[in-house]
Design brief:
Radius of gyration of chain B: 19 Å
Strand order of the largest sheet of chain A: 3-2-1-4-5-6
Strand content of chain A: 5-15%
Order of helices and strands of chain B: HHHH
Shape of chain B: flat
Radius of gyration of chain A: 26 Å
Strand content of chain B: under 5%
Distance between the termini of chain A: 84 Å
Shape of chain A: elongated
Number of helices of chain A: 18
Largest sheet of chain A: 6 strands, parallel
Structural class of chain B: mainly alpha
Number of strands of chain B: 0
Largest interface: A-B, 129 and 91 residues
Number of helices of chain B: 4
Helix content of chain A: 55-70%
Oligomer: heterodimer
Largest sheet of chain B: none
Amino acid sequence: MLPTIAHLLTGAADMIAAFLFMYGLKRMSSPVSAPSGIRVAGCGMLVAVAASFLNVFTVDAAAKPHLWVNLGLAIVALVLGASAAWFKGRSVAMTEMPQMVAIYNGLGGGAAGAIAAVELFGHKTHGAGQLVITLLGGLIGAVSMSGSVIAWAKLDEVLKKPLRFSGQRMLNAVVFVAALVVGGYIVYVVQSGASPVLPIASVLWIFFGLTLLIGILMTLPIGGADMPVVISIYNAATGLAVGFDGYVIQEPALMIAGMVVGAAGTLLTLLMAKAMNRSVSNVLFSNFGDVSRQKRSKMTGEEKPVEASDAGIAMRYAKSVIIIPGYGLAVAQAQEKLYEFVKLLQSAGVNVKFAIHPVAGRMPGQMDVLLAEAGVPYDLIHQLDEINDDFATTDVALVIGANDVVNPAARTDKSSPIYGMPILNADKAKKCYVVKRGQGKGYSGIENELFYEDNTYMVYGDAQAVLVEMIEAVRGLGAAAA
Amino acid sequence: MHFDMAITGFVALYIFMLAAFGGWVIIGNVPAILHTPLMSGSNFVHGIVVIGGITALLNASTPTEQVIGFFAVLLGAGNAAGGYAVTDRMLAMFQASHQPVHVLHVKHPAKKS
């Protein structure tokens, strides 16, 4: 009787959780309803986790003697893992969000891989189909875990340079094929009952070792600028692995949640690749960044420096200003100063808007979060498609800490590595100010034609210091007038 | 009555297909401004893997299974809790123009979180 009730309750809880996840994500379609969306999904999680402990009434006969130990372990693991991640998540700086997402994703991938491992080591799969799905879940989960850890290391600048060597692709292919062969061998041995050359547990360890290695090798050669796409891919991969695990352990909530995330991650990956005008396979396999360093296209004209105070005053007397923030703004931690300057301009009657490129920051949408953190209302923030036509009728475009996303070479120069990438049309504004630390190239190492345009003026200096000067100059005007 | 579910073959494929399609449609409506919270939010959603970890660990019968199961729960719990924490924090920052600035960094009442 008890097992039946437990089954009924966990089944119902899983269904509620699956519904709340979908509904919560649905509410993410607007900044107004999004905060409640994540809370709805959070309730789903609590319900599902609480109900999963009802499984104590339905455990396998073999696990019965260990039940109390297992229950204790589960509670300890749950409390430890959740509290550590919770406190880290509550305190981490917004600029470090990409790393955090990478590492949480790695945790999920690891969990998915570990579940597959428990099923495999315990010989709990039934039939070839389930065995193959379990191995796939293990493979994808493990790749996602080790790959996410490398992505984290790159974003956190623990690993500074992409690691590339000759024969790398060959090696990756060999390791990948080896993992598939070992996986196939496991299926063969388990299904045919043949005695393996090594104990089956050792073969499984080799399998998981190889899969972890795939994630590491795949991610090492990819440059830091491409990490957003990589995290998104691993996010989708973890979702897929979770979905497969859900099938193996017959938990429909995992199947649904996993597949939803798999689809979401795939969609985001494609959107991002499109924003960079590159295919996903190009990101993963092309060693991007090599080409650009070799060639230096000749630039006509010269960079015209201008004082920060002059630029600030010019914007004060403009009718409209569009600000294009890039990651350099966050590096200088100047978002709040920028918003202070914007408020000053607004109170002087200037129409100020923010234009965000889809790949601004280290992950899609990160710039939006950083501006929101500084207090910028979301209705001032516009995406590329919405705002790009407005530049032609705008007095001033202010580029702060952004570089490649405003490079007109993407429109004109067929030999440029970023040719074809959609860019923000800062050059179409009547005047363009570029705040930049100094002369030199951006994150991807490509020369920027915008800096040499006739109507572009360069303000050299740290973004924070430049904005302070601009604010003082504009305030000074107000004081003089009064 | 029998409430145990056996999801096999095509039933599993139907679930996968419909869930993937639902996910695609729902996520397709999320504006670019929310893409970071969306990513961490979907990251949180696959934290549901923790209940798989709990199920697997409760059914463990050898030390190897117990150790791996322990890590499954540990990692899954980290995924879920961390994903929720950062997503909730980020979403609370998005405010419209008409709201006064000083509410931006006010913490949510304890009963809600």
